[in-house]
Amino acid sequence: MEGRENLEKIGREIVGKCKGLPLAVKTIGSLLRSKNNEEEWKNILESEIWEHEVVKKGLLAPLLLSYNELPSKVKHYFSYCAVFPKDREIWKYELIKLWMAQGYLNEYFNILASSSFFQEFNADGDGEVYMCKMHDLVHDLAQFIWRNECLTVKIPGGEESIMSSFEQKKVLHLMLTIDEGTSVPISIWNNVKRMRRLRSLSVEGGEYSWSSKVLPQLFDKLTCLRAITLETDWGINQSSEVTKFVVGGGYGGACSLGSLKKLNLLRECWICGRGGVSDAGEARRAELEQKKNLLKLGLHFCHSRDGDEEQAGRRENEEDEAERLLEALGPPPNLKELRIHEYRGRRNVVPINWIMSLTNLRDLYLSYCRNCEHLPPLGKLPSLEDLHILGMESVKRVGNKFLGVESDTDGSSVIAFPKLKRLAFHTMEELEEWDFRTAIKGEIIIMPRLSSLSIDDCPKLKALPDRLLQKTTLQRLEIYGCPILEERCRKETGEDWPKIRHIPDIEIE
Question: Is 202 left (phi over 0), alpha (psi -120 to 50) or beta?
Answer without folding.
Answer: beta
